[in-house]
Design goal:
Layout (H helix, E strand, L loop, with lengths): L6 H12 L4 H11 L7 E6 L17 H16 L5 E4 L9 H10 L4 E6 L11 E6 L6 H11 L15 H29 L5 E9 L11 E5 L6 H7 L2 H20 L8
Parallel strand pairs: 1-2, 1-3, 3-6, 4-5
Antiparallel strand pairs: 4-6
The structure holds zinc ion (ZN).
């Protein structure tokens, strides 16, 4: 078969192998996906929700009430470009377990996953935006503690696709993970670069931690901490729609640049 294996083909094959599909079924899946690329689909994930308020600010602001309008603003600005499809893990004040957020992104065939948060830190002086990518062994302690807090939001263990799969799908998943991880890091660097020109940033603003929502092996995924509700100034700013719009404008520019850059998402 003289088909070019693009990223979608690869992902379809990966999913098929993980589900134990036969060689013939995999071949059929490959034929189905050797078509022109679709419009990139962005899965937006508003952190926390429902019974899980997330962090609670000094003035009583709930993290879940900052993450949702921020995500809606991201959607509004990205939709205005007419270049992307947008989906949400939640559009209301609803509790969604962390693995379900990843499952929804994979089921939708997302090309990018963005989770939005606004946590609290023990040190009230710390402030500014930061972007996280996945690290199984979170390098810095603070990042690990933060990931532990976010992961505690539900009782189900993180997604582990490789657990009961044969050796081959394990290798495929490893390959995909590596490729995805590189893309996630590139995206995070783009985001940090663009955000840093417009809003206050945390020191070492690109960090890595073991966030459960970043575990899709085949979707570049990043988590934005838009600021810290434990900081008085950040809390005031994050409550303001104008500030969120400014932050999101930088975010949306970086995402657009990342997704339309030809050597990245559209081919592999
Ligand atoms: Zn959070």
């Amino acid at each position: 078969m003289a088909a070019t294996i693009n990223r979608r083909c690869f992902n379809r094959l990966l999913a098929g192998a993980a589900a134990g599909m036969s060689f013939l079924d995999l071949k059929r899946a490959l034929a189905d996906t050797a078509k022109p690329a679709k419009i990139p689909l962005i899965m937006l994930d508003a952190g926390h929700g429902g019974v899980d308020p997330g962090a609670i600010g000094l003035a009583g602001t709930y993290e879940k009430d900052i993450s949702l309008p921020t995500v809606m603003e991201v959607a509004r600005q990205l939709a205005a470009t007419n270049r992307f499809q947008i989906r949400f893990t939640r559009k209301d004040d609803e509790f969604i377990p962390l693995p379900d957020r990843v499952t929804r992104a994979r089921a939708a065939g997302a090309d990018l996953f963005l989770s939005v948060h606004a946590d609290a830190l023990p040190n009230r002086a710390e402030r500014g935006a930061s972007v996280y990518t996945l690290s199984e062994q979170a390098s810095d302690r603070e990042a690990a503690a933060l990931a532990a807090r976010e992961n505690k939001a539900d009782l189900v263990a993180g997604l582990d696709l490789s657990q009961n799969d044969p050796e081959v799908s394990g290798i495929l998943i490893d390959l995909a993970r590596r490729q995805t991880n590189n893309l996630s890091i590139q995206l995070a660097q783009d985001l940090v670069g663009e955000l840093g020109r417009h809003v206050p940033m945390l020191t070492n603003s690109h960090r890595s931690a073991g966030f459960a929502v970043l575990k899709a092996p085949d979707i570049p995924s990043v988590l934005l901490e838009s600021g810290y509700l434990s900081n008085e100034r950040d809390e005031q700013l994050l409550r303001r729609p104008e500030y969120r719009a400014k932050l999101v404008a930088a975010l949306a520019r970086a995402i657009e640049e990342f997704l339309v850059r030809p050597q990245r998402m559209r081919r592999s």
